[in-house]
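Re: folding output
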Amino acid sequence: MFPETCARARRATQKLAVASTEDKRAALRRCAAALGEHAERILAENARDVSDARARGTKDALVDRLTLDAKRLDAVARAVVAIAGQDDPVGEVIEDRSRPNGLRVRRVRVPLGVIGMIYEARPNVTAEAAALCFMAGNAVILRGGSDALRTNVAIAEAVRGALPEDVRDAVQLLADTSRDSVLQMARAEGAIDLLIPRGGEALIRFVTENARVPVVQHYKGVCHMFVDAGADVAMATRLAVDGKLSRPGVCNALECLLVDAADAARLLPPIARALLEGGCELRGCERTVALVPEAKPASPGDYGFEFLDRIVAVRVVDGLDGALEHVRRYGSGHTEAICTGDAARAERFRREVDAACVVVNASTRFHDGGELGLGAEIGIATSRLHWRGPMGLEALTTMKWIVDGEGQIRA
């Protein structure tokens, strides 16, 4: 069954790779319309998934990732339309030059082929990953989690039904949500060209350890913000509250707050108070607890941990050097932020922090494909090859060389 799924996907790529930009755009606009037309069924199935998740005792922040309502579903449809409106990367000339021997040498973008997408909870990924892969000329085999299976099936059926019949198999959803299906995808050498796992640490490790196909890791988001001495306390408070509490269960949420010891007595209490009033639990070092008695003493495991909940680790550090050392030790390479009024320290933070995204005086929540102008993303890659950061259309292509001559030979 799975080999035939891959074979159908490969056949679809042969048609899709040469499809015109306008044909792809028209198909995606129909997909977006289909999400609206099938909204009643999609939301009903999602309600069943959410009900089951609550019955299992799933944390509220994770339930939030699973939940769709009319507004969120409309946002998914608008994201698909936005993807359709993006520049088509397929065929883009990256480089065009002439050699001394008269050869014309070009590098152009081409589709990757068949992409495997493994993800948990988020049903919006079903539509957005399908749209991104399709616009970039790729087929995608989707394997969502069991917690969102009903919703994923409803979305996938709506999307597939809107696609032209000859490329319908460019979007396929696996109904098997067992660990065996992940293993099949990870070992599908020659059938899947790129595997993108997006989920918890256990999933990422399992895929990476078993993969025989190239993998782009979408690893955990242990995102920090360092509040520098002299920082504007009102700004720092806004950034901390937005980073942690706007959506605690997402990968770009703030998980650890670092505060410069030289100014912690002024900075930390008001920031902590705003977080506490927002229902956030603080787990801090000894210096944090001394300044904020409501904070709980942090355990060693709280640093470097992705809470995905209304919990934030706090540490008072000795200046920028202390912050950089903490980030080097505990960061996951996702998003790191600094709140500072000092241009030199901001530049040093930009230069020395090793992460997919470095943010100065803004919320970690801006590390998002839509917010960075990509329309949407298939996820945020924390590995270094072949991409890092939000994976939009360009990230879903590779390149090939085209050499045009007039009979030249290599003597």
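--- second protein (sequence, then structure) ---
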Amino acid sequence: MAGLLALIAAFLFAVAATLQQKGALNEGEVSLRHPASLVHLLRQTWWLIGTAALVLGWGFQAAALDRGQVAIIQPLLVTTVVFALPLGYFITKQHVGRREILGAVVIVIGLALFTVFGDPAGGRTNAPTNEWVIAIAIVGAASAAGLYFGSRGGLSMKAGVYGTVAGAMYGLAAVLTKPVLTAWHESLHTVVTDWQLYALAVAGGLGFVLQQISLGTGRLAPSVATVSVANPIVSVLLAVILLQERLSRPAWHVVVALVGLGLALAGAVVISLAREAAKRPEPGPQPEPVSSTS
């Protein structure tokens, strides 16, 4: 059930990204330097529908995390890239070629291996506050450095950098969801007085804003791919370190599971590179030089 809920969330995230991009393209550049550009998105019907799909997807993701472990739920969200291909083709008229299809097949095979052989065991629903502080500081510093050094290139670079940092924020938010849900099951008072609820809101909010900037570049493939890759990488690492989740034994199961996860992430990168290659215009024939006679 948890896996099914995660796949539904991935589909809704793909719908959200495609519709939000469709709305953002009508508003021109979306940038942190111009906060009004984010407010103007509220005028776009498609963007609002996409945001509703995103919120619904968060609900399904939370339900999946409530029933399963982070290390198995979050990698399934890589299928967002697979769902985004046909949606991008029909909604925003984006080309889907053989390399994109190959990447989607690789993702499915990789995730199947990870799901069958991964089977995380053990773990806890929370970690000591000092461990959370260190982890949040590291993720925050790495994200700030990425935005500072990597957002000065072209549109594809900007989409990838902002998408990566958005994915990192979503990954942090996913791991914070576990203790927040535990507090929710105890009582409303427990959850509203817990600092982790507000840390979750900040991480999710930052991820949302940064993803809109990434989608606003018009480069759907690198935007969706980087979010979908960074999210499980960050969340699985934090789940292993903070929540002490471990993959199943024997050891060869762990190896196969990690190979499968690597294949899934590689498939997402293949799709991203293929979509970017399709955007580059083929060099046309050069005009013949005009010779003059004296």
